[in-house]
Amino acid sequence: MVTGNVAYANASPDGAARTGARIDIRHVSHGFALRGNTLPVLDDVSLTVQPGEFVALLGPSGCGKSTLLRLVAGLDTPRAGTVAADGAAIAGPDPSRVLVFQDPTLFPWRTVRENVAIGPQAQGRRRGAATAAQVQARIDAALELVGLTQFAKAWPHQLSGGMAQRAALARGLVNDPALLALDEPFGKLDSLTRIRMQGELVALWQRARFSVLFVTHDVEEALVMANRVIVFSGRPARIIAEVRNDAPYPRHRDDPALVELRRDVLAQLGLEA
After folding, report:
1. Which of 101, 102, 162, 175 suits a disulfide with 193, CB 3.0-4.6 Å?
2. Is 205 helix (H, G, I), strand (E, B) or coil?
3. Which residues constitute the domain of residue 240?
4. Does residue 6 fall inside a structural domain?
């Protein structure tokens, strides 16, 4: 469970107030070379994520949602169109844009605390800005934010699936991201842990107000968590619908309004029955 009153995630390392990133995706098309041909994955996708907004990307498996996250994270460059963060073209990875995968990918030879420390250590080597005490304070704050303070010295094999995913979130949050991009982060969790983690992620977002891009195949998960749900077609992905959900948090799965939205989204995906 998320605990504590941590101010760190609301401020940048220099103490200034942090707001979420604005992401502008304009007419992006992308594909991959495959045996001498190009496999189209994204088809003329345009989307804006407002600062502090929680946006879910929903669509069939393999349609290109994860590819779009990689473009926003700066891990790939679109074949056509532009991707920008706060008005600047994204030319490569940046600590302000954190990508969290379905598999926590924790280093088994590092404790939870040592895994979380990877980002600040890398930044310290590049910039030499933060003191050792400041770095330790950031790590402490990130662990407290995800409720893992008591497990800081644990090894990854000693963690449950939900705890491992919290550690992966802490590893991203310690960098004080303006954008958190998540690629089905709860896909491998059991249903009860998944529901609990959904609530914990929403609580983190409400506290820190970074922007969120969240990839999922689960219509209910998208509607319970996000301000806005972007519905994609099959590959190559095109945006076929945008669904707003302005209901207050916490949201309840049996809320008639949410049930109706779920029905509408399923219809957009051709799953009315």
Report:
1. 162
2. helix
3. 18-268
4. no
pLDDT tens column, 203-231: 989 988 899 999 998 999 999 999 999 99
CA dist 258 and 247 (Å) reads: 9
Q: What is the pLDDT of residues 78-135, one digit of tens each?
A: 999 999 999 999 999 988 898 988 888 899 999 999 999 987 766 654 444 556 787 8
Q: Is 260 left (phi over 0), alpha (psi -120 to 50) or beta?
A: alpha
Residue 1 placed within a domain: no
Strands 80-85 and 211-216: unpaired
Which pTM was predicted?
Answer: 0.84
Instruction: Kindly state whether residue 2 falls inside one of the protein's structural domains.
Output: no
79 DSSP 8-state letter: S
Burial class of 132 by CB neighbour count within 10 A (0 to 12, 13 to 18, 19+): exposed
